[in-house]
Write a structure and sequence with these properties.
The protein is mainly α. Helices cover about 70% and strands about 0% of the residues. The mean pLDDT is about 85.
Length: about 210
Amino acid sequence: MTSADTRPRRRADAERSIARIVAAARASLSRDPDATVDDIAKAAGVGRMTLYGHFRARPELVEAALVDALRSGEEVLGGVDLGGDARHAMTRLLASSWALVAESAALLTAAQRVLPAGRLRDLHAGAAERVEELIRRGQQQGVYRTDLPITWLVNAVHYVLNGAAEEHRLGRLEAAQVAGVVTATVQSILAVPPPNAQVPAEPADG
């Protein structure tokens, strides 16, 4: 018969095993979005049966790795000072954000291949809300544009961060350049347009 003190030890052992597997999945998928279950099990130092005892399929494991990465990112971004002028706060936020995005770019690619788009949006909701709140404050301060939908502006920040991470991965942007490039691009997108600025009309046919 299993004693009462044996069950907590088994639960603790299981939790440590899960933590090792998730950490290995996060590291493996951050290097290679095509990392297999065998690759991850080997990196975690466990057998396939042990891994499948905790995660029934690869998508479930990929999601756990992404959740872990996002949780770590939230701990970092939660410590960023977002007070004062929204433009200065955005610069501080971007400086911390791009490195996190670069680290998880391959992991996000893996997640995009196996998780529904709606689930990915839900997982990123916290980061999107932080950017949205900062843009709204900039609009209230009169330093950020109000002529475009807020959801589009939030997505534009997201696109720039991911694009910069990809450029860095391909060696077209040095690490020392990225924060400045991201900041300049995002701030120019969010800036209040000059008076009477208009989108150029499409040329007439003919």
